[in-house]
Design a protein that fits this description.
The protein is of the alpha/beta class. The protein is built from six helices and 15 strands. It comes from Streptomyces canarius.
């Protein structure tokens, strides 16, 4: 059995600061005209927030912030519904119920609904002023599988990818705005997170001159399926077969390693002092859709 997910990762510069949503619908329509089989379109971090680089002031971000039931989100939901696709439009500045400022990745369905939203748990300290999120988020794509969302610096914390995989994510979608020299390390982390969790990882970075690009798609055994060679604006397309996750977990990475089957019923829990908790063998295996 095959569970194909045709996707397009749009490595692009941020939308203009004066009117970040203006022309975005046309951009997505043009994308689908070029790649009509696309079911999931993903854009970089802060793509629609009117910033032309890593934000230098909290005021700039506060000005861009809206609640998730605001006009920007309604426009994006309508766009996804009109085009009949899953849309992750990068991340947006979200105004919380108590005035918090979150860096949030929304997920819109082909029916034109906001079906999930993830608030970045690990803002890049001390450079980012966001309030951190407090929960991990997955979203079901009916008939295909489950995706999990992380944002940029989250990839540096292995707990995020592990938790998403445990929640049943078969693809981790990672919108990024990396403008610094550490994109080389992020490419390693994308492969490592894919390998140790046996999931697909797709990481889409901002294009130059703002971002360093090099977006990529990694399979559940850590092989790079597609990669932008530089920071130039481009689109990466691929068709992921989510049954590859099932295959790799069943037969092992390189036909060998089956980390999710590590424990037996006779094994005792392992204390994890760092977390004030433990690994419980009875709870180790990931959820299934």
């Amino acid at each position: 059995m095959s569970r194909p997910l045709p996707l397009a990762l749009v490595q692009a510069p941020p939308r203009p600061a004066t009117a970040p949503l203006s022309g975005f619908a046309e951009d997505v329509e043009h994308l689908l005209a070029r790649f009509p089989q696309t079911r999931l379109a993903v854009y970089p971090e802060l793509h629609l927030c009117g910033v032309d680089g890593p934000p230098s002031s909290t005021g700039q971000l506060q000005e861009a912030a809206e609640p998730l039931d605001g006009p920007r989100s309604r426009q994006l939901a309508e766009l996804a519904g009109d085009l009949g696709i899953w849309l992750v439009p990068g991340t947006v500045c979200e105004r919380g119920e108590r005035g918090e400022l979150f860096n949030t990745a929304p997920v819109y369905s082909p029916e034109g609904r906001l079906v999930a939203s993830y608030r970045k748990i690990f803002p890049w300290r001390p450079h980012e002023p966001y309030d951190p999120g407090d929960r991990f988020v997955v979203a079901d794509l009916p008939g295909t599988g489950r995706i999990g969302i992380s944002i940029c610096y989250d990839a540096w914390f292995p707990e995020v990818a592990r938790q998403l995989a445990w929640l049943g994510a078969e693809v981790i979608v990672n919108p990024v705005m990396t403008t610094t020299a550490d994109r080389a390390q992020e490419l390693v982390l994308a492969r490592a997170n894919a390998i140790v969790n046996q999931v697909f990882v797709v990481s889409v970075n901002t294009a130059g001159p703002v971002g360093t690009g090099r977006s990529l798609v990694v399979d559940p055994e850590g092989r790079v399926r597609a990669e932008a060679p530089d920071s130039a604006a481009t689109v990466l397309t691929d068709v992921l077969d989510l049954d590859d996750v099932t295959r790799v977990r069943t037969f092992g990475t390189a036909g060998l390693n089956r980390m999710w089957d590590q424990f037996t019923d006779a094994d005792t829990p392992i204390d994890l002092p760092l977390y004030g908790g433990r690994i419980d063998p009875g709870r180790w295996r990931p959820a299934t859709g």
